[in-house]
User: Fold this.
Amino acid sequence: MAVTFQDDTAAVVAEIRDLFAQIIESKCGPRTGLNEICEGFGIHRKLAWQLTKVAYGEDPFFAARYMPTPKGIETWVRSAAERGVDAQLLARVVEGSTRFETLVETHAGSRTAMDMLLESCVAEPSEEIDTRWRQRAFEGNSYIWGVQARTQLSAAILAPSTTKRGWFDMAQARSLIDLRRTRPDTRWMISQATVRREGPGPDSPIREPLDAETACATGGVPVLAEFTTDPLPTLVRRHTDDGHVLDELMPGQIGQAGQLTITTGEVIRNVSTAFANEPGDRAHFGVGIGTPAEVMIFDHFVHKDLFPGVHRELCVFSEVGRPFTSDEQDRLRVPEQIHSMGSGLSNVHTPDVPGYAKLLRHVFSSCDLNPADFELYRVRMAYPPLTTSVMIRHELPAPPDWLEA
Assistant:
């Protein structure tokens, strides 16, 4: 049976970590800070920092990410020998370094590829690590697809249906802030929406733009003119045979001269029942990531009378192979969490969305809703990965007696 990367790495790194710690403590004693290591071995601060990360990092895969190069090991071993460190220990360090380089060659082929493998195996996902890799993807995708945005905003407001007992309506405000094209022929889908239900219900929900006059002027796209760049961009709305609604931006100027912000707002009536049809039924509320963006804000406002006592979890699903999937095998591991922000609008402010409170007041007022009646749950993700859906998921509560009566 072939040795796995994880097993091979754990064995090699465990020995190296033990050796590093023994040598550091033999020279520096219990004081193993950077200053003590630099002075004790006569080495520069970066090398000392790498040694402490390897020796004392809690996760072996994360620690291995900081393994010094063979040249760095040579520098440390030479300095340590000059300061009287046991020669046998230092010889074992050189052997360990050689084993690590063999590990790199066998499983990865390069240190860059090795870093990717190591960081994919850490016990807990790291926001710092994920952000660094995602930023690289953002830069490449901006060039490949010919478009980028500073912020992708999606705010959903869930309230009991005004016409169908036991169901809920949803108001949506979506925005691409500081969107710019990097290619003159780019035609870009700014929004893709769908509603999926479990159990019986009307054939399709009812969509109502918050600004009907502007929607007529933009081909049905529910643009909020007050929160969109003037003059209004050229947009097109398309309905597909399988129930999806696609809003597209037509080609325009590239770079900063063509930079714009597009904000839409609409109400979807009778989205779905607020209760389970069968035990274990779950609700998924989310946003598709289709535009390279520096940051994504997903705000989920829930009326106090909806979904009492549920446990919400963040799920990010890859849609590379299966669009609109919610299958666990398509779920991606991410470090972000859902943050409970309290009720009302006092905590909504964020530098990622200028004038955000004003936009939300407009949406709540247009829907005749009181923000104080809603709890806010927020997901913030730097450089969100393309072709994914970011979902807040929870089980649906059992139907109450009054609904069945």
In short: The longest strand covers residues 167-181. The longest helix spans residues 5-28. Residues 197-202 have pLDDT under 50 and may be disordered.
